[in-house]
């Protein structure tokens, strides 16, 4: 039966949530109605997303970026109060999965991004399985790979050129994982792809000869939550819908 308890338990096991050390609680973050007919997926549990989910008659929302992050102000005031009030007034459950959703080898953000970008997955970057190493089908220049990514993600990536070499072996990690460039450089890949960029990412890329591609935090993390939502909806016979609230970052 599609109850919030059953669905949350199923995802908990599917994503092996207990195996992760994370910066926010994974799973049911805000409890709503018991029986589910429809889930609405999105990248981040923002006010605009909740408003859209209410319009779509969601019983639960399923997101990658939920709430209650480590070190954030725990008080329910201001922006947080507005969001929580809206959600609770409509009795909607909030399910959020962060690192476990990045890492899942099939439904995860990294696996799904590889599918979208036609990258063959070969290995994981860290002990939790977050980030991957892999290979493009054929050699591409940085400009060619950048154009291909722009076409597939609908957003122009920022390219940091680190030499004349063509790209075949790549590493990637969705979202704000530009810090993993050191690991990617040590592994000797031709290029590293993530969502965001910091000032020093440019230096690390140039001085290690690893091309860097900042393809967008939001743009790279739209796919895991869709794959997970579709999988869960099929399993429990739920209606589902993905709502994309545009975010250029
Ligand atoms: Zn993220």
Would you tell me which CATH topology of the largest domain applies? Udp-n-acetylmuramoylalanyl-d-glutamate--2,6- Diaminopimelate Ligase, Chain: A, domain 1
The set of bound ligands, ions and cofactors reads:
zinc ion
Top CATH class of the largest domain: Alpha Beta
Number of strands: 11
Helix/strand order, N-terminal first: HEEHEHEHHEEHEEHEHEHHE
Largest sheet: 6 strands, mixed
> Structural class per helix/strand content?
alpha/beta
Distance between the termini: 38 Å
- Kindly state the percentage of residues in helix: 25-40%
Strand order of the largest sheet: 5-6-8-9-10-7
The rough form would be described as elongated
* Strand content range: 15-25%
State the helix count: 10
Low-confidence stretches: none
- By CATH, the superfamily of the largest domain comes out as NIF3 (NGG1p interacting factor 3)-like
Domain module count? 2
Pfam families: DUF34_NIF3 (PF01784)
InterPro entries: DUF34/NIF3, DUF34/NIF3_sf
Protein name: GTP cyclohydrolase 1 type 2 homolog
Binding site for a divalent metal cation 2: 64
Descriptive overview:
This protein has helices at about 5-15, 45-55, 80-90, 100-105, 110-115, 140-155, 180-185, 200-210, 215-220, 225-235, and strands at about 25-30, 40-45, 60-65, 95, 120-125, 130-140, 160, 165-170, 190-195, 210-215, 240. It has about 250 residues and is of the alpha/beta class. The strands form two sheets. The chain has a six-stranded mixed beta sheet with strand order 5-6-8-9-10-7. The chain has a five-stranded mixed beta sheet with strand order 1-4-3-2-11, sandwiched between helices. Helix 2 packs parallel to helix 3 (about 80-90). The model has no long low-confidence stretch (mean pLDDT about 95). Zinc ion (ZN) binds near residues 64, 175, 176, 217 and 221. Belongs to the GTP cyclohydrolase I type 2/NIF3 family.
